[in-house]
Design goal:
By secondary structure, the protein is of the alpha+beta class. 23% of the residues lie in helices and 22% in strands. The protein is globular and about 55 Å long. The protein binds a DNA duplex (16 and 16 nucleotides) through loops.
Length: 282
DNA sequence: CTAGGATCCTGTCAGC
DNA sequence: TGCTGACAGGATCCTA
């Protein structure tokens, strides 16, 4: 669930809280999640946190970075002097340091960065900073909305593929950062059926979809992301985009735009897919 | 090249 | 009440 807006929100929080802290130790409780040598980051001072699509890179001043791919249920939560907030969302299952806390990064001044992950799909990977952009996943990422995904490039990607448009939007090697929630909502906003072959979109539809993608992502960032499953921000609180869902998760409910049909739920590429059969025709 | 399925995980929920 | 099974889903890997 964490997609571009959620990870961007976490990035902003981590930049606010982590920068300047020194890592003093790493406790690994579930080894599969932590890849690389924890000693490489000990004594390193956090300089900056970057985002590449849905991946974060926590850069240290000693030449190493921690690549964080939180996937479905990973949470990076800071506690320490840079934060006044003490309330933690109940979506932090098990609490901080509980059964779902798999890595604890101890910082100076008594601060802590917790990695929680109910489903254990996420990974924290220690890697040299100058290898971040050439490492497997990051190198393969497609252009990203608001960054290098221009309308021209979007049109060229879309018109070159006959795969259903929703799968193109979610394919990280074609377009970086868009996941299931925002793909569903962008297609609803653009009134395009998720199963439409990408290359069947008219030039007008291409432009409309491009703008819709940017619009829903922007809304996601403004509202701090969608805390539908277990996404929380870096201070452990929830985002609000789930209050603005257009199609995602609205199966069986009346379409908010036409009120003439109920949002349908189907499976596409193994993912829950929501659309209005009246507004989004094949 | 694309399509489809299995895999990793566990909380939640439907059905009996 | 308690058990069982289906389901959710990002990315990867494997087969057809």
């Amino acid at each position: 669930m964490p997609e571009l807006p959620e990870v961007e929100t976490i990035k902003r929080g981590l930049n606010r809280y982590l920068v300047g802290h020194k890592i003093v130790g790493v406790d690994i409780r579930y080894p599969k999640i932590f890849v690389g040598n924890p000693r490489d980051i000990e004594d390193g001072k956090i300089k900056n946190v970057r985002r590449f699509a849905k991946v974060l890179s926590i850069d240290l001043d000693n030449g190493y970075s921690v690549l964080a791919q939180i996937k479905l249920t990973g949470q990076l939560i800071y506690r320490g002097p840079n934060l006044k907030e003490t309330n933690i969302s109940k979506k932090v299952f098990g609490g901080l340091g509980g059964k779902h806390t798999h890595v604890i990064i101890r910082l100076d001044k008594g601060a802590v960065l917790y990695y929680n992950d109910v489903r254990k799909f996420g990974r924290l990977k220690v890697i040299k900073t100058n290898e971040v952009t050439t490492s497997g996943f990051v190198e393969k990422l497609g252009p990203e909305p608001f960054l290098d995904l221009t309308l021209e490039i979007f049109k060229s990607i879309v018109s070159k593929n006959k795969t259903p448009i929703k799968l193109i939007l979610m394919d990280q090697e074609k377009i970086g950062g868009v996941g299931n929630i925002y793909a569903n909502d962008a297609l609803w906003l653009a009134k395009i059926h998720p199963k439409r072959p990408a290359n069947s979109l008219s030039p007008l539809e291409q432009t409309k979809l491009f703008k819709s993608v940017e619009e829903v992502l922007k809304k996601g960032i403004e509202t701090g992301g969608a805390s539908e499953l277990s996404y929380v921000t870096a201070d452990g609180t929830e985002g609000k985009y789930q209050e603005h869902f257009l199609a995602y998760g609205r199966g069986g409910k009346s379409c908010e735009r036409c009120h003439k049909a109920k949002v349908e739920k189907i499976k596409l590429g193994g993912r829950g897919t929501y659309f209005c059969p009246n507004c989004q025709k094949l």
